[in-house]
Write the structure tokens for this entry.
Amino acid sequence: MFAKVTFAALLSVMAVPAMAAQCDVTVEANDAMQFNTKEIVVDKTCGEFTVNLVHTGKLPKTAMGHNVVITKTGDKQAVATEATTAGPANDYVKPNDDRVIAHTKLIGGGEKDAVTFKTDALDAGGDYTFFCSFPGHWAIMTGKVVVK
Ligand code: CU
């Protein structure tokens, strides 16, 4: 009996390396101006990676809009500042800004969006950040993008 359980546990451990790389992530944002994660891990072997954004709140995007923007950490402040000028019609992202590696649309409560990008835009071990570029959100709604 005991030996059987151990063998099953061993099999489940052995199965892990055979699993495919995780090539997407779901990030939730809420009415309290929070993301549910502080870190997104991107595996370069994926080729393409998808960030799914889900707004679990009820407030409209004009009041509590959220997006996910990925930049180099050093570009974040400038991109976030210029986002306010770009305005809601541009999802608070300056159009054709090549400092922006990927971004979702701006969404309100109950909505979803997703963005897929090529992982060769990122260097393994590089210093990247994700954030919401809605005015006033980027200092709080932010986290690290770890590239491996
Ligand atoms: Cu936001």
Q: What stands out?
A: The pocket of copper (II) ion is lined by residues 65-66, 132, 134, 137, 141 (CB under 6 Å). The chain has a mean pLDDT of 91. The chain has three helices and eight strands. Strands lie at 24-29, 39-42, 48-55, 69-72, 102-103, 112-118, 128-131, 142-147.
